[in-house]
Write a structure and sequence with these properties.
By secondary structure, the chain is an alpha/beta fold. Helices cover 42% and strands 12% of the residues. Strands 3-2-1-4-5-7-6 form a seven-stranded mixed sheet. Helix 8 packs across helix 9. The chain is globular.
């Protein structure tokens, strides 16, 4: 394990990097990984790098800074909008500076008579638990000021993202990553001042833009698609030189729930049901919250997997059956059996699309973690690699980045399987 790249699967490097740090995404990975793989691959102008699980845009941001064409696919509509905002650098900067100063002046000169009458009674309960009435009114006041400020569409998106970035910084409730249900208000830290927090964030974002404004290049294509990596998204065949991505891990992580605070504030969703219908239902299966009772969904392992690799199909089927039997004895009766089934069915479909659009000899780098639901070890990176070989990819390799799960070692409910995070390299 190389200590220099042990953090490639985390967002720590990106937290200190201009533009990348605009939204702290729990599923993020290091921009340095993308830089390294671009350099290793020797890509030149005109080459295309792709990420089928774009998230908040890490791969495409690095591609744009290096004047490489890029294509990204993201199914989470809220996260897609964040990536789109981070990837837009082509402002009229003279106007942007003027409008930013106008917004700053409006906020700095505001008083309680301006925000004190903002109605918050209809705000989702989650928001009422995370903020004092004063803070919530001030947050909504900034939102209204952005909406009614006469700014351009892109300026509004930029200012809105600064406000979104301020939400977890302001709150005194437990709003860290991953999402923690708010405890008694004020029990963890004091609430920060809304206006000063927002102004600090938006000034930093403007400074970040100023540092990259000269990187924009009209001959470079940066395309992001609100879509599903399991399906045909109109990307031309044999057009992608390099893939760098980090797909959902098979660790029961609910990506829709992890942005609940932000989506509630922005009005994207108002409750659990809307999160499911608008976001969760669009994502590939990665958590048990996406699979329910037998009357709703009875998932079977795709028979096409058997056709390309009978031994892999049998190994997965055996582990799925083990999970099904263990589930009957557990109080929670979590559908890990269906989760594993759906996950690999979805990965099969993703690989099918990549096989069409990647150039022969091109490489695909995946930051992945294995898992052990109910103590049954699922060798995710190996299984995806074997799927790829069965579908006509040339070879796969696994490089271990770091071990995982040590902080839960003393939990008596925790399994004792040693987990890891790796880079899976698949050559087309």
């Amino acid at each position: 394990m190389n200590k220099d790249n042990s953090k490639y699967g985390t967002f720590k490097d990106s937290l200190r990097a201009p533009i990348h740090r605009w939204f702290t995404y729990p599923a993020g990975y290091s921009y340095k990984l993308v830089e390294e793989k671009i350099k290793e691959s020797g890509l030149k102008r005109g080459a295309t790098i792709m990420d089928p699980f774009l998230g908040t845009g890490t791969t495409s941001l690095v591609a744009k800074a290096n004047k490489l064409n890029s294509v990204g696919i993201e199914a989470h509509s809220f996260v897609f909008d964040i990536a789109k905002t981070k990837l837009f650098w082509e402002y009229n900067y003279k106007k942007l500076e003027k409008d930013l100063n106008s917004l700053i002046k409006l906020i700095e000169n505001s008083s309680e008579k301006d925000w004190g009458t903002i109605k918050i009674e209809d705000a989702p309960e989650l928001l009422r638990k995370c903020y004092s009435d004063k803070a919530l009114r001030q947050l909504y006041f900034i939102s209204v000021s952005i909406k009614e400020g006469g700014f351009t569409k892109q300026e509004k998106k930029l200012f809105d993202l600064a406000l979104i970035n301020s939400l977890r910084l302001v709150s005194a409730a437990g709003t860290g990553w991953p999402y923690i249900a708010p405890s008694k208000f004020g029990s963890k830290k004091s609430e920060k001042d809304v206006f000063s927090t927002f102004l600090k964030v938006i000034r930093q974002m403007y400074s970040d833009l100023d540092s990259v404004r000269n990187f924009s290049d009209k001959t470079t294509s940066t395309k992001i698609i609100l879509g599903d990596a399991r399906m045909d998204n109109g990307i031309p065949a044999n057009s992608v030189d390099l893939v760098v991505t980090s797909p959902p891990y098979l660790n029961n992580y609910d990506y829709a729930d992890r942005t609940r605070l932000e989506t509630y504030f922005c009005g994207v969703a108002k409750n659990w049901g809307e999160i499911t219908s608008k976001i969760r239902s669009k994502l590939m299966i990665a958590s048990t919250t996406q699979v329910f009772g037998s009357s709703d969904r009875n998932i079977k392992l795709n028979k096409e997997i058997y056709e390309i690799d009978p031994s892999l199909f049998d190994e997965l089927s055996k582990k799925i059956e083990e999970l099904s039997e263990i589930k009957k004895t557990r109080k929670g009766k979590k559908n890990y059996d269906w989760l594993v089934t759906g996950y690999f069915n979805d990965m099969y479909d993703v690989l099918k699309q990549l096989a069409k659009i990647m150039k022969k000899g091109g490489k695909s780098f995946w930051v992945l973690g294995d898992s052990a639901p109910y103590g049954i070890h699922i060798k995710t990176e190996e299984y995806i690699g074997r799927l790829a070989i069965g579908m006509g990819f040339k070879r796969y390799e696994i490089e271990v980045l770091r071990s995982r799960g040590e902080k839960w070692a003393k939990n008596p409910q925790r399994h004792n399987v040693k987990l890891k995070e790796s880079i899976l390299t698949i050559t087309r």
